[in-house]
Amino acid sequence: MKLMWIVIVFLVIGGFIIAKSNDLDLEEGDDRKTFLKTFGGWIVDTGKNVKGVTSYAVKEYDWLPEDNETNLSGDIDVEET
């Protein structure tokens, strides 16, 4: 639930920045079309960047632990307290 709110706030702030930096009046039809094209492109570009970073992290990082005697023995010694 928290992640959803973070995404919504991120999108709203991004939309506000796009509208202000392009000096758009969202009550006018032409400015609204310009906003939607710019905002849609920004969302697509952001999605591509997230995909690129995620795929790089998955491919380049060794996520598995190294094999060693402790991992391979299968014996688990648990001390009772």
Could you describe the 3D structure shown?
The chain is mainly α. The chain has a domain at 1-40. Helix content is 70%, strand content 0%. The chain is built from 3 helices and no strands. The radius of gyration is 24 Å and the shape is elongated. 0% of the residues are buried.
Short description:
With 81 residues, the protein is an all-alpha fold. The chain contains three helices and no strands. The two termini are 39 Å apart.
Helix content: over 70%
Strand tally: 0
The Cα radius of gyration reads: 24 Å
| Beta strand % | under 5%
Q: How would you describe the shape?
A: elongated
Report the average pLDDT across residues.
85
Features:
81 residues, mainly alpha
